[in-house]
Amino acid sequence: MPKxxxxxVGTFDVPAGKRLVNALVDECGVDQLxxxxxxxxxxxxxxxxxxxxxxxxxxxxxxxxxxKGLADRPGLRLSCQIxxxxxxxxxxxxxxxGSGRADAGKRPxxxxxxxxxxx
Length: 119
Description:
This protein has helices at 20-26, 59-67, and strands at residues 3-6, 10-13, 46-51, 76-78, 88-92. The protein is of the alpha+beta class.
């Protein structure tokens, strides 16, 4: 079972293959934003990797980070496009608290959406 460390929150066991966005909410109790419902459209689910950043990125993630001018930020990734396949440590960037939003967004599906096309 992979270990997920969240800066300022703790370290948690997470089910292998679980979407990072859902693991942050379910296992870690973090109020992670995911306004678009986990479809790689809005970047509200972004996190910064401290360690264990996955080497692969979906085309959807690469495209939205580029469109939002965030592609050149090392370690900045979309938690909705990452599966927990190994130990990782992250800093949560976008939380519901202080965002002014009524809720974090519709719960993302269990599988990466859109279907993963690895860039």
